[in-house]
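Before surveying the methods themselves, we first show a specimen of the format, giving the amino acid sequence and backbone structure tokens:

:::
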Amino acid sequence: MLKPRDLGPGASTQTFLEAMRAGRMHLARFVLDAVDGAIVDCRSDRGRSPLMYAVLLKDPAWRLAFARLLLEHHAAVNLGDDAGRSALSLACERGYLEVIKLLVQFGADPDTVDARGWSPLMYASSEGRTAVVEWLLRAFRRFGQLRLERADRAGHTALQLAASGGHHGCVRALRSAGALLLIFPESPSSQAGDDHDGAASAASPPLRAARPVIDNNIPSSLQGLLM
């Protein structure tokens, strides 16, 4: 029989992860209690924490139960892995709405970005997770906690990612929330002129209208929604 003294830091983390994968809640609780919750933020493969593995479990009931267990033991909800991805980011990519709501309940930040500049909203949009996109917009947009025009390191917004993937539902949700797919042409170089004292001054360049971006990778059936 497994005893608390048998669980060193490495062994306890591995035992806990194996218990999660097998759906053995009693064993998982035993491990956490034996080490006084010390392993909740231990890093494993690719720098991922137990919470990150929990939100990726295939069984919906296990996913929710183990994520709640870890959060109630004060797991760091906004911790990032080696690529800067949080548990919320991973859950949004998979479309696991119930665990997304749980993470947010425990303080998950919906606008954090990873090493490539992607936010949870971007992952949901790129994968066509319409229900997740709609929920994030309803839950956070009115409080200014989602920046819809945020661009990743390649210059892509959530709307562009959704459109490029042909995800009509996500495009409609983002457009309804006010997301724009715009670029602003560069203004012409300002011309220096003389003021009435004879000193040179730079004239402010005129404002120019933005125009819609039409990406060749965006299906033609979606381009009308982006105008």
